[in-house]
Amino acid sequence: MSLGKFLVRRILQGIFVIWGAITIMFGLRAVSPGDPASLMLAEGATQELIEQVRREEGLDQPIYVQYFDYLQGIVTGDFGYSWQSNREVEAMVIERIPATVELAVAATIVAVAIAIPLGVISATRRNQPSDYGATLFSLLGISTPNFWLGLMLILVLGVWTGVFPTGRRPVGLGEAAMTFAQTGSPGDLFTWLRYITLPALTLGTYFTALITRLTRSGMIDELGKPYVTASRAKGLPNVLVRYKHVLRNTMIPIITVLGLQMGTLMGGAVITETVFNWPGLGLRLIDALDTRDWPLMQGIILFIAVAFVVINIVVDALYSYLNPQVRE
């Protein structure tokens, strides 16, 4: 199968997944208890006013009519208005995207910086204390709930020692970078770094454990192949063989997992953002759930679904380019 046909098939599958997410969210709204018109108004609104809102919002129409109207709005870029703030949903989603992306990227950097060295050490020193330590770390990382780890980091590194702040960040990465470019002062960058450290460690812990185990298994598999023996027989240093050849061949599946996990991190940052009051999509989603703001919830879930699908398609395209056998 050609690369073009492969991408077309993956895009069609992605569109189907996005449509499924939209349909499920709309179905949940339809079966949820309560009158949406009442949620849009203040407590104590008259029945006449509630009926007027129902007519204006099309809530008095059959459910299938509401569904197709909602699909038409999404296709045309109209995601509706928040029931609580009366703001455009797309604007409320877009303004929170940078914070979520910053946290996901920072968590990925933390995971890679810790996991790959641990995986290499564990693979090259099998059945030694360092290998057991890396394995134990992976087990703890996968088993530890993110919310508990976040609270412990806040307690130890925030409250007891005061090394890192625990509240909402005062400046974003874009603002800090712009200030640095204009004034040459790195103060805002350091402030942003201090605020993102604990959330990135919390979100990246599970990811770190996964990449450590993947690196270890990949390295062990590569170390047993004939080209490694031939390279050592030629007198190449072990460090050169280990990092230039073995680790390089191991990185292909790791890069694939990194790309796929980026989508997972963006969707899975809800708990971490809530614990650290991080102003991203996850925290806004929790606020929307508390107020039953369905248009806002649908907009956030739709963005996460689209981001996940796009990341998966890009990773599949890169991987199929590097390894054409996956297209078969």
From TrEMBL:
A Pfam family the protein falls into: BPD_transp_1_N
Bilayer disposition of the protein: Multi-pass membrane protein
Segments forming domain ABC transmembrane type-1: 97-319
Keywords, ordered alphabetically: Cell membrane, Membrane, Transmembrane, Transmembrane helix, Transport
PROSITE patterns referenced in this protein's UniProt entry, alphabetically: ABC_TM1
GO cellular component terms given for this protein: plasma membrane
Cellular location(s): Cell membrane
Membrane-spanning intervals of the chain: 12-31, 103-124, 136-160, 192-211, 252-276, 296-322
Listed GO biological process terms: transmembrane transport
Main location, first listed in the record: membrane
PANTHER family with a match to the protein in the record: DIPEPTIDE TRANSPORT SYSTEM PERMEASE PROTEIN DPPB-RELATED
Similarity remark: Belongs to the binding-protein-dependent transport system permease family.
Protein name: Binding-protein-dependent transport system inner membrane protein
Organism, as annotated: Natronobacterium lacisalsi AJ5
